[in-house]
Amino acid sequence: MVEKQSAQEIADSERVRAGESAWASARNSSRLDAEMAAQLRMVLSESFRTAKTWLELIRALRIKGFYLERKDGRMRLRDAHSHVEICTCRFLGFPGGELETRFGEPLPEYL
Questions:
Q1: Residue 90 · residue 30 · CB < 8 Å
Q2: pLDDT 10s per residue in the chain (111 long)?
Q3: What is the pTM of this model?
Q4: How many CB atoms lie within 10 A of CB 40?
């Protein structure tokens, strides 16, 4: 029987094997499958919920192998290793506009 791996275990094994995270497979399709999306939300939701500043959020995401980019008016999550766009912050349940309101400023370009 095949045992399911946690999202972090998948990301770690992929990162070691291919120099990128498991999330970079999003480049092969225009959307995440439901299971991968649920795992991604589990891995990242605490970081989004508890961050009090952009710097805190950026640091937490970097530790997990991601970064944010504002593009075409949307806040996008990207894989830090392959630079593949994974999804929008809205898809994760944290719209960019709400993050900007909460942090009191737009996403700084220098982060």
A1: no
A2: 444 544 455 444 444 344 556 666 665 555 577 888 889 999 999 999 999 999 999 999 999 999 999 999 899 999 998 898 999 999 999 999 999 999 999 999 875
A3: 0.74
A4: 23
Residue type, 92: L
* Under 8 Å between Cβ of 88 and 70: no
**What DSSP assignment string belongs to 12-60?**
HHHHHHHSS-GGGGGGGSSS--HHHHHHHHHHHHHHHHH--SHHHHHHH
CA dist 21 and 98 (Å) reads 27
Residue 11: which of 109, 88, 82, 110 has the closest Cα?
Answer: 82
Token pair recorded at residue 11: 């990301």
Task: Give the C-alpha separation, 7 to 37, whole Å.
Answer: 10
